[in-house]
Amino acid sequence: MTELVHQRCLHHPSREAAARCPECRRFFCRECTVEHRGRMICASCMGRIAETPVVGNWRASLWAACAAAGFFLAWLIFYYAGLMLARAPSDFFEVTR
Predict the structure, then answer these.
(1) Please, how many CA atoms are within 13 Å of residue 33, restricted to the half-sphere of its CB?
(2) Is-above-0.70 flag for pTM?
(3) Which of 7, 15, 57, 88 has its CB 3.0 to 4.6 Å from that of 29, i.e. a possible disulfide?
(4) Mean pLDDT of the 3-32 span
(5) Does any domain span residue 96?
């Protein structure tokens, strides 16, 4: 494997390479790369990544649906527990000593 120190930019042969694109495995200078999700990617690969359609984040949707269902279930439980306590006769709540 060749070291990064001895490599030159693909587009600017007079410049030293600053990063190797993980997508196309070519070397580029700092001007020719962009940071994307913690990785240095060349402009052409970044263009291909940007063109791909974004699939919805189903995990976030699933979490939101489960959270909403949990809140609704808790509301139902407390609502019917309150109805049951409200319908209890008043002598049920009296303290006898």
Answers:
(1) 24
(2) no
(3) 15
(4) 86
(5) no
| Residue 34: both structure tokens together | 């962009």
Residues 22 and 15: their CA atoms lie apart, in Å, by 20
Residue 94 in any domain: the answer is no
Q: What is the pLDDT of residues 51-86, one digit of tens each?
A: 776 666 788 889 999 999 999 999 999 999 999 989
- Number of helices (H) and strands (E), helices first, in the chain? 2, 4
CA–CA separation, 36 vs 57, rounded Å?
18
The reply to whether 63 and 42 lie within a common domain is no
Q: Residues 6 or more apart from 43 whose CB is under 8 A from it?
A: 32, 33, 34
Which residues make Cβ contacts (< 8 Å) with residue 5, sequence separation at least 6? Answer: 16
For range 29-38, the mean pLDDT: 87
Same domain, 39 and 77: no
Q: Which residue has the tokens 């809140």?
A: 71
